[in-house]
């Protein structure tokens, strides 16, 4: 290979901000609460006191990593985690809007049948049922309504696992980020470690965003020839698996291999949020799920707000390894990844200290005030991140 090129997320064929998608949606109806974390629509039961939310998302390219680990080990259990990813990318987004009533889930699996066997499909479907049952045992009112498995080898190189959720909630319970004000603090809930409700030994904190950059920036080029079905052939060859690690290399200070770390299931905060939602939560002005857009997600919400983050968690090891291996600029890392806190709650300082942080602690999830909000004189939102890696403005 020639001298290593330093890629952006975009020249790997993906986008952290999805500007083209947002442009296509700019004239679409914004729903009952424009600016809410998810689109809120009229109640499907036509009750004027309620509203409905329909949300679709999935595990993204993380399913390709599960396939690679399966091929390396012949262990079909590596597909279990992407089921959690597919569910939580929807569930936690919905819960950023407020307390849901019953939630109904349907899943869609698209596979290349010549590569993804019936045994794998069975494991995925069984894992959906088991994980939904576990969520209900933790107080989340979620149920399955079936799904679809499609053999689409002409379109899908390996596997894609998506979910769709629908729920109703009281209109008075909706959290509207338009209420964010100067003086509010930002509480970050950690994405790494081990929550009381997690089955895995340790969570790297990776989540389900930025996995295209993570796998190509971390893994050695030997996987280019070994797994040609695991990348788009249109990508520059020098940007495909251009990192320095094997899947079975160990991640320092964790019990995980590199492969296991980048497959760590997306942490859900639903048990914590349901506990918070038991009482009046009107002092919460916004909840952000730091998926697409990473640490810059907040800047899409509110009006004329300057978000200042100056007390973030120490960057988890997996993100430091991605940066060191890929040489992606830190400014881009914060734009793509959650960098240690996947959920943020905007509220008063008193409510943060007396309510949110103690409840998170009860579930063994670290929480801290990571920043605050100021009014912005410009007619747009602004974000400033001050970190050991530098000061970045977005």
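^ structure tokens above, recovered residues below v
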């Amino acid at each position: 290979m020639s001298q290593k090129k330093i890629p952006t997320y975009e020249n790997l064929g993906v986008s952290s901000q999805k500007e083209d998608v947002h442009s296509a949606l700019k004239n679409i109806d914004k729903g009952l609460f424009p600016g809410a974390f998810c689109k809120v629509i009229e109640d499907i039961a036509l009750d004027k006191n309620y509203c409905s939310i329909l949300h679709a998302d999935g595990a993204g390219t993380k399913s390709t990593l599960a396939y690679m680990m399966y091929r390396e080990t012949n262990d079909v259990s590596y597909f279990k985690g992407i089921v959690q990813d597919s569910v939580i990318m929807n569930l936690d987004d919905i819960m950023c809007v407020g307390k849901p009533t019953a939630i109904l889930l349907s899943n869609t699996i698209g596979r290349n049948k010549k590569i993804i066997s019936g045994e794998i499909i069975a494991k995925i479907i069984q894992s959906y049922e088991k994980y939904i049952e576990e969520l209900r045992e933790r107080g989340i009112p979620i149920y399955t309504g079936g799904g679809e498995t499609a053999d689409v080898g002409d379109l899908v190189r390996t596997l894609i696992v998506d979910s769709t959720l629908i729920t109703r909630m009281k209109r008075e319970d909706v959290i509207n980020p338009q209420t964010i004000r100067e003086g509010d603090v930002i509480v970050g809930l950690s994405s790494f470690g081990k929550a009381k409700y997690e089955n895995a030994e340790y969570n790297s904190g990776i989540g389900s965003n930025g996995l295209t950059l993570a796998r190509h920036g971390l893994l050695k080029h030997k996987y280019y020839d070994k797994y040609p079905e695991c990348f788009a052939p249109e990508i520059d060859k020098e940007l495909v698996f251009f990192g320095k690690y094997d899947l079975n290399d160990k991640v320092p200070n964790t019990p995980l291999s590199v492969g296991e770390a980048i497959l760590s299931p997306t942490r859900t905060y639903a048990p914590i949020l349901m506990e918070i939602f038991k009482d009046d939560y009107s002092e919460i002005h916004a909840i952000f799920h730091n998926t697409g857009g990473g640490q810059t997600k907040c800047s899409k919400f509110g009006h004329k707000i300057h978000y200042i983050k100056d007390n973030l968690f120490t960057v988890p090891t997996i993100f430091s390894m991605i940066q060191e291996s890929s040489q992606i600029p830190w400014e881009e890392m914060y734009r793509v990844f959650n960098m240690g806190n996947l959920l943020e709650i905007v509220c008063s300082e008193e409510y943060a200290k007396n309510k949110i942080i103690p409840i998170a602690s009860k579930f063994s999830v670290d929480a801290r005030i990571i920043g605050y909000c100021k009014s912005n004189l410009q007619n747009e939102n602004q974000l400033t991140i001050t970190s050991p890696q530098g000061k970045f403005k977005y």
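The chain has a mean pLDDT of 93.
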